[in-house]
Specification:
The complex is a heterotrimer. Chain A is α/β, with parallel strands linked by helices. Chain A folds into two domains: 18-82 and 164-238, P-loop containing nucleotide triphosphate hydrolases (Rossmann fold, 3-Layer(aba) Sandwich), CATH 3.40.50.300; 97-158, no CATH class. Chain A is built from six helices and nine strands; from the N terminus they run βββαββαααβαβαββ. A six-stranded mixed sheet of chain A has the order 5-6-7-3-8-9, with helices on both faces. The longest helix of chain A has 16 residues, at 177-192. By secondary structure, chain B is mostly helical. The relative contact order of chain B is 0.16. The mean pLDDT of chain C is 88. The longest helix of chain C is centred in the middle third of the chain and has 30 residues, at 98-127. Classes of the chains: A alpha/beta, B mainly alpha, C mainly alpha. The B-C interface holds B 65, 68, 175, 178-179, 181-182, 185-186, 189-195, 197-198, 200-202, 204-206, 208-209, 212-213, 215-217, 219-220, 223 and C 153, 156, 160, 163-166, 170, 173-174, 176-178, 180-181, 184-185, 188, 198, 202-203, 206, 209-210, 213-214, 217, 221, 224-225, 228-229.
């Protein structure tokens, strides 16, 4: 494995033209309900994609399939120029241990990505933590974090191994406006560094200035896909 | 019922009737136990049949696991062929008069046949089929195992004077029954869309456990007084042996028929799942249906 | 490749350290299991006269049954921890191997159950007025092998039960039938050593064989169980 600990700065230094994720007629059925229905999409590097839609529209399921946590019932997801190791995933749940502090959580997950438990990894984790405006020295267990802090730590966990792809499920839920704008600033910084970001959200207002493409789902089906600026009020059904 | 199943059903009925006639009328009455011994003509074949069914469950589960990845299926097919070839060559060499040919020949020959059949099957049986065979065999096996556990005490009470004793075979049968009941319960309670995979893993654990259970209980019992058997060893009347074998054949056919029917049912359930999936995706045109559907076909 | 074995060793260590730290912070498993084992031992002592000479004969059985039940409590706890906040998903998206998680959990559970045994066993000896008439060091070997047998299978089946409804009930249903030979070996070995008649060597070999077979099977099959949806 190429040492990810080296890249202190920003990830995806060598984004090339063929780096993309292709979804070919992907469907996912649970029992008798189709969560995702024959969806074909292409996600290209250095862009932020925003998946919009009601609850149960299939956005989260799509993200889980892209992360490799669920297998599509039919269709295929192909990674071009990406590997699963260089993907970061932030779920609706926090994916954190409540009993551990923020730094302990990050260091554990860094080790899962092959970063040794040395000072390099520690400074990498501390850097990630500061980038989401959390104090690395904070010894409070995650249990006692506020919802906004927890979300930011979740984001930090997803990017601890400097991923080239970030899959974020509702990153701004219960996050105060200041934290949200910090997070969006970070995301757009990552995007300019070549990172591919796919995020699911209800709060269009938070991302309408940073998102590049806005994809709307309804009942598992792709309804529309628009560039920023072409977004119409009818695309978002609350 | 399918036509070939009807034919098998008729054959099974005939065999069962013949076996009944042999067991009740033809076989001589046992000297010390009397007519009660005739329950053996049902008890013993049931036990053997249950054993065969549990083996089928294990084999089908292994096939399922092997089929999880096409690479493993290919490699295991190759290994199976090589092992089978080596076994056949070894069997031929073992015909050397220096060896007692019966034991070793049959041992190696049966290994060869099992490997060959199993790995050929592994290469050509789909996951859906393998899983359907696994669940059918386990259910029928549990039924026959239950028959063994009921007929055993019925015989033991008048002959030994006790309903139950913690003898090797009795205890092993009981534990075996518990293992496969827990297997079926796990399938029933499973909340996963990959029940078949979990069940296959459990089946491997269960089958690995059976010989260990047998050995441990044998050692356990040798340290404790064994129950006094009414009749120990001795020659068995050919008519008795004939009755046992005929009944075993009949029971195997019956078990096979039941498992086959259960298999057909499970395949229909799988097909229904497939149709539900298609309906959910609102693909009514068969030509547009995705050909490659994970976990169903 | 040495680099990959190194890193999977490091991941195993990371998993174990994380489990120990979590347990140290919450003490969920240790408290529940320890108290539970103590209760079972006391209840058995009240049900059977512990001062009678026969109690020496059944002491091994009571002890191991208590720990079989207690281990179930601990095993459910350690996986419940991975399900809270769906942390297991974070493990599954990472490149870390499933067997490192399995082995880490087995080692962690082994330490927890072993620690409680180390506390309860002397208490048990006092309650039942026991002293081993056979070689006492063998008791330690039996304890190590027996505990490994319980937790190796238990960890696997607890992970399997995660994918079922009413998973807390499912674990004993799956674990107990499979554990019969291991339980028999532990009980017989312990009783033999306590009573000092004959050798427990055969039972210890049996336990060792059981441990090897089911640890290997668990390592091979755990990835399937972990990745089941």
């Amino acid at each position: 494995m190429s040492a990810p600990s080296k890249s202190h700065s920003l990830p995806a230094d060598a984004a090339t033209e063929e780096q993309r994720i292709a979804l070919d007629r992907v469907s996912k059925v649970f029992g008798r309900v189709a969560a995702v229905r024959e969806t074909s999409l292409e996600f290209i590097h250095s862009r932020i994609y925003v998946l919009l839609g009601d609850n149960g529209a299939g956005k989260s399921t799509l993200l889980r399939m892209m992360a490799g946590l669920a297998q599509p019932t039919s269709g295929s997801i192909t990674l071009h120029g990406y590997t699963r190791e260089r993907m970061g995933y932030m779920a609706h749940a926090s994916l954190l241990y409540d009993e551990l502090s923020g730094m302990e959580n990050l260091r554990y997950f860094a080790q899962l990505y092959g970063m040794a438990a040395n000072t390099d990894a520690v400074s990498r984790c501390a850097g990630v933590m500061s980038s989401v405006a959390l104090d690395p020295a904070l010894a409070t267990p995650v249990r006692d974090y506020s919802q906004g802090m927890r979300q930011r730590l979740s984001l930090a966990r997803a990017m601890v191994h400097s991923p080239q792809v970030l899959l974020l499920d509702e990153p701004f839920s219960n996050v105060d406006a200041a934290s949200a704008s910090q997070m969006t600033a970070l995301l757009s910084k990552l995007r300019h560094a070549g990172c591919l970001i796919v995020l699911v959200t209800h709060q269009l207002s938070v991302v309408k200035d940073v998102g590049d493409e806005f994809i709307t789902f309804r009942a598992g089906q792709l309804i529309s896909s628009r560039r920023r600026g072409q977004l119409r009020p009818t695309d978002i059904i609350q | 019922m399918r036509r070939d199943q009807t034919i098998l059903a008729v054959i099974t009925l005939g065999l069962l009737a013949y076996g009944f006639y042999q067991a009740i009328y033809v076989a001589p009455t046992e000297q010390t136990m009397g007519d009660i011994q005739r329950i053996f003509y049902y008890h013993v074949p049931s036990a053997w049949t249950a054993g065969v069914m549990f083996f089928v469950n294990f084999a089908a589960s292994l096939v399922y696991l092997v089929r999880l990845s096409p690479g493993i299926a290919k490699v295991s097919g190759m290994i199976g062929n090589i092992v089978a070839t080596i076994c056949v060559i070894a069997t031929l060499l073992l015909r050397d008069p220096l060896y007692t040919w019966t034991v070793k020949f049959w041992l190696v020959f049966s290994i060869a046949v099992l490997y060959f059949l199993f790995w050929r099957l592994a290469k050509h049986t789909s996951q859906g089929r393998a899983d359907a065979w696994a669940v059918s065999a386990a259910e029928v096996g549990v039924v026959f195992c239950t028959i063994v556990l009921i007929t055993g005490p019925l015989w033991a009470k008048p002959v030994w004077g006790i309903w139950w004793t913690w003898d090797v075979r009795l205890t092993t049968t009981l534990v075996c029954w518990m293992i496969y009941v827990s297997y079926l319960m796990m399938r029933k309670f499973s909340d996963s869309s990959q029940t078949a995979t979990l069940a296959a893993a459990l089946a491997v654990f269960g089958f690995l456990d059976v010989p260990i259970v047998y050995m441990s209980i044998r050692w356990w019992r040798t340290q404790h007084p064994a129950p006094v058997f009414a009749s120990q060893g001795g020659g068995i009347d050919p008519a008795m042996e004939h009755a046992v074998m005929m009944n075993w054949l009949a029971f195997l056919c019956l078990a096979g028929l039941l498992a086959w029917m259960r298999y057909t049912l499970d395949r229909r359930r799988q097909h229904l799942d497939y149709l539900h999936t298609m309906e959910a995706l609102s693909v009514s045109d068969p030509a547009r249906r995705p050909t490659e559907l994970k976990g169903i076909r | 490749m040495s680099a990959s074995t190194n890193s999977s060793g490091a991941i195993l260590r990371a998993n174990l350290a994380k489990d120990l730290r979590l347990e140290w912070r919450s003490k969920d498993a240790l408290n529940a299991m320890g108290f539970f084992a103590l209760l079972v031992v006391v209840i058995f002592a009240l049900s059977f006269d512990p001062t009678a000479e026969e109690s020496r004969r059944i002491a091994g059985g009571i002890f191991w049954v208590a720990f079989l039940f207690a281990a179930v409590v601990a095993l459910n706890q350690t996986w419940a921890r991975e399900m809270r906040n769906q942390v297991l998903d974070a493990y599954r998206v990472s490149p870390a191997s499933a067997s490192a998680l399995f082995l880490g959990k087995v080692l962690g559970n082994f330490l927890f159950v072993g620690a409680i045994e180390a506390v309860v066993a002397p208490l048990f000896m006092v309650f039942y007025n026991l002293r081993p008439l056979g070689p006492a060091w063998q008791l330690i070997v039996v304890f190590l092998l027996g505990t490994w047998a319980l937790v190796a299978n238990g960890t696997f089946f607890a992970a399997l039960s995660l994918r079922t409804r009413n998973r807390e009930v499912m674990l004993p249903l799956l674990l107990f039938p499979i554990s019969v030979p291991a339980l028999l070996s532990m009980v017989e070995a312990t009783t033999t050593i306590l009573a000092g008649d004959g050798s427990a060597g055969m039972w210890m070999k049996m336990l060792a064989g059981y441990d090897v077979i089911f640890t290997v099977a668990g390592l091979l099959l755990f990835e399937l169980v972990m990745n089941a949806e």
